[in-house]
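The protein record passed on for reference:
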Amino acid sequence: MFENELRATAQAMVVTGKGILAADESFGTANKRFQKLGIPTTEEMRRAYREMLFTTPGIGDFFSGVILFDETIRQSTADGTPFVQLLSNQGIIPGIKLDAGAKPLAKSPNELVTEGLDGLRDRVKEYYELGARFAKWRAVITIGEGIPTRRCIEANAHALARYAGICQEGGLVPIVEPEVLMDGDHTLERSYAVHEEVLKTVFYELHRYGIALDQMVLKPSMVISGQTSSQPASVEAVAQATVKCLLDCVPASVPGCAFLSGGQTDQQATEHLNRMNVLYGGKLPWKLTFSYGRALQQAAMQAWMGKPENVPTAQKALALRARCNSAASVGKYSPELEKVAVSV
């Protein structure tokens, strides 16, 4: 029923030169970030913050889509324009976070499984009617002593496949997000091994559940050494390992891989994506682009601080990060771009 629409949407989500803004922080995550900066943790402040992001001039040139939270997809600008309409008017596809968060996996200490499958079919229908055209579900895999276990990987892959099937049935392109966390002291080699096992298991389950791979987008983490590793990997090593792993695991029919930033600094996330596209751009079966949250938003939030008079400065910060990552998605980023004042 939705096949042609889903295929077209998936292609539009990874169109050359654009990425996806992840603005789907839950109440808890958004409030935690606000508290650190002394911003009031109210619904109105969250709405005003999202309005600041979504009204940034020119973001339609850099973002193909924006992932929204349940609260946000129902909100409007101060003048009454629904956010979904505001984004659509800029050529940006509205999306929605569907998972209910990662919870402890039974009998598996220090491992998580993502919940939210109950009632999902009805929620997909409602969000489609509200204007969403794609969705996101995040699975969380932790590297540590004796983990991840097979049961953790299989449980999360199974949930991702069931979610993806319900989305495609209901008209939403599923973003499939198996995140291998950077937390820990693991080496690049260990990260590669875990990514490989996770991705192969995920695509096995997607195949088993009949998911149309040309009607989805993969949101992978990068193959990178742990944040406290004694052997930090270079930009070149991360780029090479990440692409090799994707080539080993991701079928050619997937339209694109929109990376998460996963705790990297703003500039690290940009540099890694850029190096992949410099080395392999045009030679891969799928696009390599970005779907960042903090790595796009953090500078803007710090500039905004909840004050209306700071909106222009905050929007310049968002536009700069958007421009840098857009350039990285085609292998044309350089550190000099960080110094360019973006005129908005």
